[in-house]
Write a structure and sequence with these properties.
heterodimer, A: about 450 residues, TIM Barrel, eight-stranded mixed sheet, 12 helices, B: about 400 residues, Urease, subunit C, domain 1, 2 domains, nine-stranded mixed sheet, 16 strands, about 30% helix
């Protein structure tokens, strides 16, 4: 743990060294700061990896700034993908339906070319989740799309001091035969309730011990992240599709006092009011057509609009490789097609996702002091003809469409991507999954 | 029986189908066969297009029901899909696209399996896809036959346009995944060649003037004979360059008409494809770029079109979510990656109509053609534009307001 901290410090220095010491001003674009109204002819100034100012006042440009003209372009914050499988996080190993101790960070290849897709799509912050198929498949990891050779280069620690959540699932997804897996929905819920009761007891022992380490219960890798869930430090990211399964999550949330982020929500539109009443947030997937598995047969493009109408905070996710990171803006655009407001759709790509990951003090909007993560678009964010032209992460340009090597990752082509990116791990056996209704 | 049904049909549908004629008024009409028409009008009579032109030049008769929109295109055509064969549930009960008892089964007819009531047919219809080329799937050397159908409601017999369109074939590693043999590419090709050689012999014997010398009628041989005689085309799913070349070599050896399906690496073999006169249906590029489609590029349609190859775009097939792609969205992406708007619209209208041999009936807005069309409230390819109405054979089959 200490090692990681030391490394992170080293990393900060490293980034300052590569990012500009000199301020850079991007001038002339239509800026969507997200936390306020769009700014015509806007000016974004960044320095040392953070935002110095956002507005349209020429006086905000420091005398020594490099000025980059971006007339006719659109600038918005780097996108936040709340659910992805880039980098090969693998998943549970089916030895057991409950694996809170397994960490996605131990599996991911930080050099995977899958991450190039994220940059080409304008995504700068990602919650990489272990695959599903389990009640609890493991710990997720929050990554910033910096250059990285080792996973620590990419880790993005949040306001609560953790760099990941906990992945859970219910419904047909986690029902299968053998190895203690549940065969019914009631059994699924009872296994999870038993687990949380155990975690409550463990937490009680910890609380009782207080600062007296001799009275602390023995370390338990499975219990530790669950205690973090119970205290609100670690967020549960809950894969749940059908309306009855969503309501089961609401029940668990109420019983054990944790606030999960609800993921996918194919039938979220049926229980939008209930989700709103429970005060939970929705991270939704947008898919061209329903089906492919039992859980998704009632999926519709209208989910975002209906959740918005009920007052549920909505973010989008790619679930890459289910949908493609390069088409992330499209998820929001199709939701606008089906009735979501433009403002809420833009928020769903940025600040709402950042809040779900407890990272909104650093990313998700263009505000003074926040990380200089932003994208430059050729036009309206919701047009099919618009391209992400540049993606900047902490003040460094990580993707530029005018660079043929970067452009290749947008288009694809011969030999561009490697075959072992590991995005498809949890759908390795599609036919088996289909038979199981997953 | 048939007569009484017809009477019932007429008495049920007569008021809307035969009497209420329809006029479409649009800010832009895209006939595809001609330049876009600003402030255009289309008159529909008895299921066919009666006239297309400028509003100033066409008088709408007073008894016509008028539908207005920003834009109107011909009904869209999905050049290759499995909907109606591979159902929304993706469970064995609704999967009829691939029979795994034998890697070569040209005798399997699509019309015996197609389910016109499948949920995904409705999904396609509501995105303006009025005609689909569907049928047997990917993953067998010869998985079976394909068919062409309208996406309107009705029995298979009522919606079918062509009951036997092509023979669905696959070359590539997905075949070897599903059968114990063939296990290699060389074996795949040798098995197809052996079967086609048998069909050549069968066909020759069938031509004998002395009918007593004819072989016993054989469903498998009969279907392959139709391929060899050019009555149907071979629809070969081949994505990698090596598999595309194998398809071309086969077509040359046996003289059959070749349609390359998927064709992820076709952009690497432009000259070879042109020389072979092979037609091309490109797989949806929003598909996952894995396995044989690892090297696909979003610019394929543009590269091939610029090289003079007519391109059609298909929703194709993937084994997992989503259960179908939407060709409207796929053509839109092609328009964003190098195709002009007009070229992109052709990939899902007139190009597949020609490839499927049904361009006398569909694929463009021309007088006398089937009144299949799609009304939009904006640029048809924009993400935020909606389909407002869909017409098939002159009947409004989707109305967004309703």
């Amino acid at each position: 743990m200490n090692k990681i901290k030391i490394f992170l410090c080293f990393l900060c220095i490293g980034i300052n060294a590569v990012a500009q010491q000199k301020p850079v001003a991007f001038k002339g674009a239509l800026i969507y700061p997200i936390n306020g109204a769009p700014i015509q002819n806007g000016i974004l100034v960044v320095q040392n990896g953070v935002i110095l100012s956002v507005g349209n006042d020429e006086k905000a440009i420091p005398a020594n700034a490099e000025v980059i003209l971006v007339n006719d372009k659109v600038i918005m914050p780097g996108l936040v993908d709340t659910h992805s499988h880039l980098g090969g996080p693998e998943g549970g190993d089916y030895s057991n339906p409950i694996n809170p101790e397994a960490r996605a960070m131990d599996a991911i290849d930080p050099t995977s070319d899958g991450f190039k897709k994220a940059l080409a799509g304008g995504i700068t912050t990602i919650n990489v989740m272990p695959g599903s198929g389990h009640l609890m498949s493991g710990q997720t990891v929050y990554l910033k799309m910096r250059d990285g050779k080792i996973i620590e280069d990419l880790l993005f620690t949040n306001e609560k001091g953790v760099y990941g959540g906990l992945k859970m699932a219910n419904g047909t997804n986690s029902m299968r035969s053998g190895s203690g897996f549940p065969g019914t929905r009631a059994k699924s819920a009872s296994l999870v309730r038993e687990l949380f009761l155990k975690a409550q007891a463990y937490k009680k022992k910890m609380d009782k011990a207080g600062k007296d380490s001799s009275k602390m219960p023995e370390r338990d890798l499975a219990m530790e992240p669950l205690v973090e869930v119970l205290t609100g430090k670690r967020v549960v990211h809950f894969h749940t599709h059908k309306s009855n399964d969503i309501l089961t999550v609401l029940r668990l949330s109420k019983e054990f006092g944790f606030k999960p982020v609800l993921h996918h929500l194919s039938e979220g539109w049926k229980v939008a009011d209930e989700i709103a009443k429970a005060g939970l947030q929705a991270s939704i997937i947008v898919i061209d057509a329903p089906g492919g598995k039992m859980e998704a047969i009632n999926l519709t493009l209208e989910t975002g609009a209906k959740l918005e109408k009920s007052g549920v905070p909505v973010a989008f996710h790619t679930d890459d490789g289910i949908t493609d990171s390069r088409l992330f803006l499209r998820a929001a655009a199709l939701s606008v097609r089906a009735g979501m407001s433009r403002d809420k759709a833009l928020e769903g790509l940025t600040i709402v996702g950042a809040k779900m990951l407890d990272l909104s003090s650093k990313v998700g909007s263009l505000e003074k002091g926040k990380d200089a993560d932003f994208i430059i678009l050729s036009g309206d964010p919701f047009s099919v003809y618009t391209k992400v032209e540049q993606t900047w992460v902490e003040g460094s340009k990580k993707y530029d469409i005018s660079n043929p090597a970067d452009r290749a990752f947008l288009n694809g082509g011969y030999g561009v991507f490697s075959s072992d990116r590991g995005e498809f791990h949890h759908h390795g056996d599609e036919e088996e999954d289909a038979k199981a209704g997953n | 029986m048939k007569k009484s049904f017809l009477v019932l049909l007429i008495s049920t549908f007569a008021p809307i189908y035969l009497l209420a004629q329809i006029a479409i008024k649009a800010e832009i009409v895209y006939p595809v066969s001609a330049a876009p028409i600003k402030d255009g009008v289309i008159l529909i009579e008895n299921g066919k297009i009666k006239s297309v032109g400028k509003a100033a030049e066409i008088t709408i008769p007073s008894n016509y029901k008028i539908y207005e929109s920003k834009t109107v295109t011909p009904g869209l055509i999905d050049a290759r899909t499995l909907i109606g064969m591979s159902g929304v549930l993706n469970m064995p009960v609704d999967q009829d696209q691939l029979e795994k008892s034998n890697p070569i089964q040209p005798e399997l007819r699509a019309i015996d399996a197609y389910n016109p009531e499948e949920a995904l047919v409705k999904v396609a219809r509501e995105y303006g896809i009025t005609t689909i080329h569907t049928g047997h799937g990917i993953g067998a050397l010869v998985s079976g036959q394909t068919m062409i159908a309208k996406t309107k409601k009705g029995t298979t017999d009522e919606v079918v346009v062509k009951p036997f369109s092509m023979l669905a074939m696959t070359i590539g590693h997905s075949v070897s995944e599903k059968f114990t043999s063939p296990g290699t590419k060389a074996k795949q090709i040798s098995m197809i060649r052996s079967e086609l050689l048998k069909a050549q012999v069968y066909m020759k014997k069938m031509l004998d003037k002395d009918s007593t010398k004819h072989p016993t009628f054989d469903l498998k041989m009969d279907a392959l004979s139709k391929l060899l005689k050019g009555e149907v085309k071979a629809l070969i799913t081949a994505n990698k360059a090596v598999d595309i070349m194998n398809s071309i070599r086969l077509s040359k050896e046996f003289g059959f008409k070749l349609v390359l399906d998927g064709a992820a690496e076709a952009y690497r073999l432009i000259d070879e494809i042109k020389k072979a006169n092979a037609e091309v249906i490109l797989h949806a590029t929003m598909a996952r770029n894995e396995d044989d489609m690892l090297n696909m590029t979003r610019e394929s349609a543009s590269i091939l079109t610029k090289a003079g190859i007519s391109v059609s775009i298909e929703s194709g097939y993937e084994g997992y979510v989503p259960k179908t792609r939407i060709v409207l969205f796929e053509a839109a992406l092609a328009a964003a990656y190098g195709l002009t708007f007009d070229e992109a619209l052709k990939t899902i209208t007139i190009n597949p109509a020609k490839l499927l041999g049904v361009d006398s009936r569909i694929g463009s807005l021309e007088v006398g053609k089937d009144a299949d069309m799609v009304l939009f409230n904006g640029d048809p390819f924009e993400y935020t534009t909606n389909v407002t109405n869909v017409l098939i054979d002159g009947v409004v089959v989707y109305d967004k307001i309703k």
